[in-house]
Amino acid sequence: MAIPSRADVTGLVLAGGRGTRMGGLDKGLVEFEGRPLAAHVLARLAPQVDALLISANRNLDRYAALGAPVVTDPPEHGSFAGPLAGIRAALAAMRTPWLAVVPCDTPNVPLDLVERLAAGLDGARASVAAAGGRTHGLCCLLHSTLRVSLDEALARGERRVAAWLHSVDARTVEFPDADAFVNLNASADLHAAVLRTTQ
To answer: CA 137 to CA 2: how far, in whole Å?
Structure first.
C-alpha cells in the first residue's frame, strides 16, 4: 500500500462528546486564546489534508460556521456514542482513501502529524501517534477499508478506541514533542493552559 499524500487524506476533528469533564460544555466551542478549541485544531490540520470534516452532535450550525462539513453519529448507535461512532460517520462521508483523526481539545497538534503518521504506516491500514510514553489513540490515520471492521466493532458494543486500533494492527508512530498532544479536556486543563500562555 502506497504512502498517502495530502491529496489522499480527509481530516476529521472529533467534537461529538458530552463534555462531561467540562461540566457538560460543548468542548469544541469553548474559547481558548480568543477562538473555539475546534477552530485551533482545524487551522493546524487544514494544511495537512485535502478536505476537512467535523464530528459533532449538538450546536451543528456553530460548528458548520467554522468552515467544514459536519457529520453526526450514525442513528443506529444513538447520540453521543463515543469517538468510534464519529469516526464511522466520517469514513462514510469522506471522498478520499484516508482519514486523519484529531480530537477537538488538542490545540497544538503537530503540523506534521499526517506526514509522520503516513510515513509510519509500514504497509498497515492504520497508524497512531505516541509521545511522552503515551499512545494518543484519537490522533490516528485510517484507511477507508477499515469501515467494515469498525462496523463490526460497533455492532458488538466496542467503544474503546485503543482496543479497536489494536484489533486492526495499527502501527505506533513516535513523536518527539509530548506537549503537542496535551488535551484540554477539563476546565482545570484549560485554565492552566491559559495561565501558561499569559506568563
So the answer is: 23
Q: What whole-number distance in Å separates Cα of residue 126 and Cα of residue 132? A: 20
Predicted local confidence at residue 68, as pLDDT: 98
What DSSP designation does 17 have? S
Q: What are 35's three cell numbers?
A: 477562538
Pairing of β 98-103 and β 35-36: unpaired
Specify if 108 maps to a domain: yes
What 8-state DSSP symbol labels residue 12?
E
Q: 182 φ, ψ to 5°?
A: -65, 130
Give the distance from CA 134 to its chain's centroid. 16
| Domain-located, residue 148 | yes
> With a threshold of 0.85, does the pTM exceed it?
yes
CB count within 10 Å of CB 1 equals 11
**Which residue, 158, 170, 169, 184, is CA-closest to 82?**
158
R_g (Cα) of the chain, nearest Å: 16
Helix (H, G, I), strand (E, B) or coil at 116: helix
Q: How far apart are CA 98 and CA 62, in angstroms?
A: 26
The number of beta carbons lying within 10 Å of the beta carbon of residue 30 is 17
- CATH code of the domain covering residue 56: 3.90.550.10
Assess if residue 1 is contained within a domain: no
What residues form DSSP beta bridges with 70?
54
Q: Taking all residues of the chain, what is their mean pLDDT, rounded to a whole number?
A: 88
Alpha helices by DSSP H, 9-167: 37-45, 60-64, 83-93, 113-119, 147-155, 161-167
